[in-house]
Design goal:
The strands form seven sheets. A four-stranded antiparallel beta sheet has the order 1-28-27-26, with no helix packed on it. The chain is built from one helix and 28 strands. Strand 27 and strand 28 form a beta hairpin. The protein has about 375 residues and is an all-beta fold. The two termini are about 20 Å apart. Helices cover about 5% and strands about 55% of the residues.
Length: about 375
């Protein structure tokens, strides 16, 4: 088979010489692939889930829409631009970032079936031209490919990170750029924002930076509060627990570093690293006490965070034939046998989209084979 093509905005993974052997019989959970779809769209680059729908972006100009739980395709969002590199969904809005460094916005409505109406392109062409003429950098689009999107709905803000080493701050209500953060000395690979408005950025400079917003600071309200080192390995992806207490960063050396907030100080403290992947960690997601990691080693790992703060690997999802580029975790759902589990969507550079279910061992394993 020919080697998998890596998109221009994805750095080649840093390979480690050894491969971890795992005894699946001793893992505390069972997992099964419940759906596997190939649409010949090329590499799957982005996934977002919201309100019973899953959105997937690829190398083509399509964002495909899937309905849960049956995971059937129920719509498409089309543009002239290709390569959907990041997706973010909130309330009735869908934001898709493309390889042309622009963001397209749709409004979602329901009329028996989901419908999407194109609202805007960020930045608008007129604003970009006027900003270029006036020399106002904050009004211009990114000068490099967008790598990640994040939203702070309460503050009416959309963030976009880019290979141009900056993070741009867009006002959701009018789609205007209100700030450009000179975030890192190397490309910014991932961003995530907490409910309290704290922004986290990850970069090829092997650091995670923490930013706070001060509304009284004029044109540049975001200020750097702390820089977290990641053991000299570029940080490719970030994820934050729902309560904002633990931050995870996946690196090219295959490690997942994590930081937790101190009980009294509220400051982030280094907690350790999750070891298991043999190649670069390319995507992360969290829900409840689960952590899901996707890697260039073509596997996903399901971890659980124990009450004492330690982590265990619950399952290794094997079945993709290329690097796992994106992952989205659906909320835990009750099974008909009374046990809880979680459903996971994974997209790979092999062009295949998979849906998995992970549950306590003894429930799912007796119904179907573990691997899709």
């Amino acid at each position: 088979m020919p080697p998998h093509r890596l998109s221009p905005f994805i750095s080649p993974p840093l390979l480690r010489p050894t491969k971890l052997k795992l005894d699946h019989d001793h893992l505390p959970t069972s997992h099964r692939c419940v759906s596997s779809v190939l649409k010949k769209d090329g590499q799957i680059l982005s996934i977002a889930a919201s309100n019973g729908l899953v959105y997937t972006g690829s190398e083509t100009n399509l964002v495909r829409v899937w309905k849960l739980p049956e995971f059937t395709e129920c719509g498409q969002l089309k543009t002239k631009a290709c390569m959907v590199v990041a997706l973010e969904v909130s309330n009735d809005r869908v934001y898709a970032a493309y390889a042309d460094a622009k963001i397209r916005v749709w409004r979602r409505t329901w009329d028996g079936a989901p419908k999407h109406v194109r609202l805007a392109t960020i930045p608008r062409t007129g604003i970009y031209v006027r900003g270029y003429i006036s020399g106002k950098d904050k009004m211009m689009k990114h000068m490099g490919a967008i790598t990640s999107l994040a939203m702070n709905i309460s503050d009416d803000i959309l963030y976009s990170a880019s290979l141009d080493k900056t993070v741009k701050v867009w006002r959701i209500s009018d789609h205007k750029c209100i700030e450009t953060i000179q975030a890192h000395t190397d490309p910014v690979n991932a961003i995530v924002v907490a409910d309290d408005g704290v922004l986290y950025t990850a970069s090829d400079d092997a650091t995670v930076r923490v930013w706070r917003r001060n509304f009284c600071s004029g044109d540049r309200p975001h200020s750097l509060t702390v820089t977290l080192p990641a053991k000299n390995s570029p940080v490719k992806t970030l994820s934050l627990t729902g309560d904002g207490s633990v931050l995870y960063g996946g690196c090219t050396d295959g490690y997942i570093h994590y930081w937790h907030k101190g009980w009294f100080s509220g400051q982030l403290q280094y907690g350790g690293a999750l070891q298991g992947h043999t190649h670069a960690v390319m995507c992360l997601a969290t829900v409840s006490n689960y952590v899901i990691s996707g890697s260039a080693d073509s596997t996903c790992r399901v971890w659980t965070r124990e009450q004492d703060g330690q982590h265990k690997c619950l399952a290794v999802l094997q079945g993709h034939r290329g690097p796992v580029r994106c992952v989205s975790v659906l909320p835990a759902r009750a099974r008909d046998d009374g046990e809880d589990g979680c459903s996971i969507c994974t997209g790979s550079l092999d062009g295949i989209l998979k849906v998995w279910h992970v549950s306590p061992k003894g429930n799912a394993g007796r119904r179907s084979p573990q691997n899709g």
